[in-house]
Design goal:
The protein is α+β, with helices and mostly antiparallel strands. Helix content is 29%, strand content 16%. Bound molecules: iron/sulfur cluster.
Length: 177
Amino acid sequence: MNKLTREKIEEAVRQLPILEYYFIKASEIPFTKEVQKICEMECPRYGKSWSCPPAVGSMESCQAHCNEFDHAFVFSTTSWTDDSLDMDACMKARVEHDKVVSAIWRLTDVNHAFMISSESCSICEKCSYPDKTCRHKDLMHPCIESQGIIVASLAEQLGMTYYIDEHQIVWFGILFF
Ligand code: SF4
């Protein structure tokens, strides 16, 4: 497969329902140690998925892995929901975002790229964690926060829209390449 370039991504993005995007150096993505602690205290997905802590490893190991790549393509999509406080409704509304993530992922040589996305993986009805290995390692994308990245801070840093209103969710993805 030919090397993935910014131009190839931008060409593909023109065909996709992306809200906003930004290219930065992978080393410019901010990592915060406390995020995984917040996951542990506040997120019902903590310890239930290969895409979340503690399965993803420490923040330091996640940061080191992300920094093996030169570039980060940060993108967002949006979808409608009747109630943004209802987690199940929100996850149903993520379907279109997942399609965009998959389309961008298909551009890559999976051995030389890494994708993370909003919220935990929901490919399987019930995650195999921790009893068996992940069933779809090549398709599973860890949650952005699982790596120690506060997506709201990153959006602010890049001038990207983070919140629209209670009926319009903004989803994020970061492709390291
Ligand atoms: S692909 Fe399946 S087993 Fe792997 S993280 Fe996602 S839900 Fe869990």
